[in-house]
Amino acid sequence: MYTTESQNEHLEDKNTSSSTTPQILKDSSISEHEETKETVLSQTEETKPQMEKTYSCPPQGKLNKLITNGVAFFMAWCVVWSFSGPEVLPGGNLFGLLIIFYSAIIGGKLLELIRIPSVPQLPPLLGMLLAGFTVRNVPFLSNYIHVNNTWSSTLRTTALTVILIQAGLGLDPQALRHLKRVCLRLAIGPCLMEACSTAVVSHFLMNFPWQWGFLLGFVLGAVSPAVVVPSMLLLQENGYGINKGIPTLLIAASSLDDIIAITGFNTCLSIVFSSGGILNNVLASFRDVLIGALAGAVLGIFVQYFPSGDQTKLPLKRAFLILSMCVTAVLGSHHIGLHAAGGLCTLALTFVAGINWSTEKVKVQRIIKTTWYIFQPLLFGLVGSEVSVASLQSNAIGICVATMSLALLVRISFTFLLMCFAGFSFKEKIFIALSWMPKATVQAVLGPLALETARSSAPHLEPYSKDVMTVAFLAILITAPNGALIIGILGPKVLTRHDPNKVDVELTKLELH
User: Fold this and answer.
1) Average per-residue pLDDT in the chain?
2) Per the domain annotation, does 47 fall within a domain?
3) CA dihedral in degrees (440, 445, 447, 452; nearest 10)?
4) Which residues constitute the signal peptide according to the record (predicted)?
5) Is the residue at 284 inside a domain?
6) Which domain covers residue 429, as residue numbers?
7) b/e map of 55-79 (b: 16 or more CB within 10 Å)?
8) What pLDDT is stored for residue 4 in this prediction?
């Protein structure tokens, strides 16, 4: 009896276990099916919002951003119109500035889109210049776009101030100290030689008086950091020429080269538009230089310690103080008759202030660079709008190009000779000489400055100033793209490449003399 009951219990347990097994399998298959269904539903729910975002009735993404920016620009125009009235309507100054500004931005962006395989990117400033030139010379647009000469001159002078601030902050005392005489030779020699050769050539080809010839020479004598510095930084990142410090040398010398050209231009400008003797004008220029350098040194020491290092938003406060002081110095010096003092004050102020800032100087430079992004389209757009095809004589362009080309050949040859005693190879000397030719930023400021001064104080000298303006425009148009292409193509072919991680490029190790 016991045996039969135990057997029956055993059979019941077996039947129970066998009956539960299919149920478990069934439940597991159901759960797997449900998980698969949930996964499919979740993927469908994830893709559904994306489809809704793409085809939603209120637009999203780039279209929404475009509409928002357009409405914001229109409302800004409405606010300005409510304050100024006809100034923002066609024919007003603000309307002309807005059209030139946005045309220059579009021109720069369009040039960035032009990419040719194995050819370096052309500088956007060329597109900005051509945009301003187009706005001026298209008949329909030129009838409604006018900018007051005073407004245009003030904005260009402010752009020059931003350039000088960047040059002063970009001067590295350590680089200047360890690159020794080669940096000074490269910055001073070619600039002065091109100024003298331009004076001689323009005197015989363009019938310029000697003082106007030297003024034109210092306009053309400056190299453009806007073209040279980005190109050299790209070569340096890829390891070309870093063993001898060629990119560092050209970057350090470019700022100093601009300082020499601007100082020489201000001196010649004082001589040209002054009624006194040449000796008195030269002495007055040296007086302005001395006053500007002393004032800049004093203000630079002040900015070193005010604001103090324990304050918040330190780079922003320092950048604001530098911008306000330098703009006041440059524009104010013109009002009181000390034309050469403002530029030297700006350079001395920024150089002295940056010595004590160490790593904080980079943050200030970034803020100043942001300011330059605003003034760059205005500068090159306004310069392009100053050149009128209708006012050019039939042989003016040919004579201007010949004058600029002959002076540029002298500059390239003299630069090659100066580098013969600096420890560079033949190919490296060729590269440095050709890299020292691009012109853009300083020419965009100094070229129209002579024209503005002639219009306000000496109308009988306006023909000479228009020729200076034309030569400056052609110099930017020809040398800026060609210089960028030469640096980008020739650099990797003639410079020795080293691994940037394995080569010590400390300035103290450079064996240049």
Assistant:
1) 80
2) no
3) 160
4) none
5) yes
6) 87-509
7) eeeeeeeeeeeeeeeeeeeeeeeee
8) 44
